[in-house]
Write a structure and sequence with these properties.
It contains 2 helices and 2 strands; from the N terminus they run ββαα. It is of the alpha+beta class and 137 residues long. The chain starts with a strand and ends in a 46-residue tail after the last helix.
Length: 137
Protein backbone atom coordinates (compact mmCIF):
# COMPACT_ATOMS: atom_id res chain seq x y z
CA UNK A 1 0.00 0.00 0.00
CA UNK A 2 1.26 3.47 -0.86
CA UNK A 3 0.04 6.52 1.07
CA UNK A 4 -0.17 9.64 -1.08
CA UNK A 5 -2.08 12.07 1.18
CA UNK A 6 -1.91 12.57 4.95
CA UNK A 7 -4.65 14.29 6.94
CA UNK A 8 -3.26 15.18 10.36
CA UNK A 9 -5.49 16.88 12.94
CA UNK A 10 -4.34 17.81 16.43
CA UNK A 11 -6.17 18.90 19.56
CA UNK A 12 -3.77 21.13 21.49
CA UNK A 13 -4.39 22.05 25.12
CA UNK A 14 -4.13 25.78 25.84
CA UNK A 15 -4.57 25.33 29.60
CA UNK A 16 -7.54 26.23 31.78
CA UNK A 17 -9.58 23.49 30.06
CA UNK A 18 -9.26 25.27 26.71
CA UNK A 19 -8.26 23.46 23.53
CA UNK A 20 -7.67 24.35 19.93
CA UNK A 21 -8.05 21.99 17.02
CA UNK A 22 -5.80 22.45 14.04
CA UNK A 23 -5.22 20.23 11.06
CA UNK A 24 -3.36 19.85 7.81
CA UNK A 25 -3.81 17.86 4.62
CA UNK A 26 -0.60 17.29 2.73
CA UNK A 27 0.40 15.33 -0.33
CA UNK A 28 3.51 13.25 0.25
CA UNK A 29 6.46 13.76 -2.04
CA UNK A 30 8.31 10.81 -3.50
CA UNK A 31 10.26 9.10 -0.75
CA UNK A 32 8.36 10.71 2.16
CA UNK A 33 6.48 8.59 4.65
CA UNK A 34 3.60 9.41 6.97
CA UNK A 35 5.83 8.57 9.94
CA UNK A 36 8.25 11.33 8.87
CA UNK A 37 5.63 13.94 8.06
CA UNK A 38 3.24 13.68 11.04
CA UNK A 39 5.79 14.77 13.72
CA UNK A 40 6.74 17.76 11.56
CA UNK A 41 3.08 18.72 11.21
CA UNK A 42 2.56 18.30 14.98
CA UNK A 43 5.41 20.74 15.71
CA UNK A 44 4.06 23.15 13.11
CA UNK A 45 0.62 23.02 14.79
CA UNK A 46 2.18 23.74 18.20
CA UNK A 47 4.10 26.67 16.77
CA UNK A 48 0.97 28.12 15.16
CA UNK A 49 -1.16 27.79 18.31
CA UNK A 50 1.54 29.20 20.55
CA UNK A 51 2.32 28.63 24.18
CA UNK A 52 -0.15 27.40 26.76
CA UNK A 53 -1.85 30.03 28.87
CA UNK A 54 -0.46 28.39 32.04
CA UNK A 55 3.10 28.60 30.69
CA UNK A 56 2.64 32.27 29.85
CA UNK A 57 1.23 32.94 33.33
CA UNK A 58 4.23 31.18 34.92
CA UNK A 59 6.65 33.27 32.83
CA UNK A 60 4.81 36.44 33.82
CA UNK A 61 4.96 35.50 37.51
CA UNK A 62 8.67 34.66 37.25
CA UNK A 63 9.44 37.99 35.58
CA UNK A 64 7.38 39.85 38.18
CA UNK A 65 9.36 38.18 40.97
CA UNK A 66 12.64 39.07 39.25
CA UNK A 67 11.55 42.71 39.00
CA UNK A 68 10.60 42.72 42.70
CA UNK A 69 13.98 41.22 43.56
CA UNK A 70 15.81 43.91 41.57
CA UNK A 71 13.72 46.65 43.17
CA UNK A 72 14.55 45.28 46.64
CA UNK A 73 18.26 45.20 45.79
CA UNK A 74 18.05 48.74 44.42
CA UNK A 75 16.34 49.89 47.64
CA UNK A 76 19.18 48.43 49.74
CA UNK A 77 21.80 50.02 47.49
CA UNK A 78 19.98 53.36 47.71
CA UNK A 79 20.10 53.23 51.52
CA UNK A 80 23.84 52.42 51.41
CA UNK A 81 24.46 55.25 48.95
CA UNK A 82 22.53 57.74 51.06
CA UNK A 83 24.36 56.61 54.22
CA UNK A 84 27.69 57.06 52.45
CA UNK A 85 26.67 60.51 51.17
CA UNK A 86 25.56 61.51 54.69
CA UNK A 87 28.88 60.29 56.11
CA UNK A 88 30.88 62.26 53.52
CA UNK A 89 28.85 65.39 54.25
CA UNK A 90 29.14 64.97 58.04
CA UNK A 91 32.90 64.48 57.87
CA UNK A 92 33.32 67.43 55.55
CA UNK A 93 34.99 65.24 52.94
CA UNK A 94 32.42 66.00 50.26
CA UNK A 95 29.78 68.53 51.32
CA UNK A 96 28.16 68.29 47.86
CA UNK A 97 27.75 64.49 47.89
CA UNK A 98 24.58 63.83 45.87
CA UNK A 99 21.74 61.55 46.81
CA UNK A 100 21.29 58.49 44.63
CA UNK A 101 19.25 59.40 41.55
CA UNK A 102 15.77 58.01 41.15
CA UNK A 103 15.53 55.47 38.34
CA UNK A 104 11.78 55.46 37.79
CA UNK A 105 9.93 56.47 34.63
CA UNK A 106 13.10 57.09 32.64
CA UNK A 107 11.37 56.26 29.37
CA UNK A 108 8.95 58.87 28.21
CA UNK A 109 5.57 57.74 27.02
CA UNK A 110 5.20 57.24 23.30
CA UNK A 111 2.90 59.72 21.68
CA UNK A 112 1.18 59.09 18.41
CA UNK A 113 1.01 62.00 16.09
CA UNK A 114 -1.62 62.19 13.43
CA UNK A 115 -2.05 64.59 10.61
CA UNK A 116 -5.38 65.55 9.18
CA UNK A 117 -5.38 66.93 5.68
CA UNK A 118 -8.35 69.05 4.72
CA UNK A 119 -9.35 69.69 1.15
CA UNK A 120 -8.53 73.35 1.67
CA UNK A 121 -4.99 72.47 2.80
CA UNK A 122 -4.23 70.26 -0.19
CA UNK A 123 -4.38 72.41 -3.24
CA UNK A 124 -3.47 70.75 -6.51
CA UNK A 125 -2.59 74.02 -8.14
CA UNK A 126 0.22 73.53 -10.68
CA UNK A 127 1.72 76.93 -9.84
CA UNK A 128 1.75 76.16 -6.10
CA UNK A 129 3.93 73.02 -5.85
CA UNK A 130 4.78 71.63 -2.42
CA UNK A 131 5.65 68.23 -0.91
CA UNK A 132 2.04 67.09 -0.49
CA UNK A 133 1.50 67.36 -4.26
CA UNK A 134 3.88 64.45 -4.99
CA UNK A 135 2.43 61.35 -6.53
CA UNK A 136 3.01 58.36 -4.24
CA UNK A 137 2.00 55.60 -6.65
Amino acid sequence: MKIKTVHAHFLISLGNYSNERIGFSVNLDEGETAEEVVPILREKAKKIVGEKADDLYEKRTKLYRECQNYEDKLGKLRKEWDATAAFLKAQGLNPDAPSMPQFRNLLSAVTVESEVVNDADDEDDEDDYDEDDEDYN
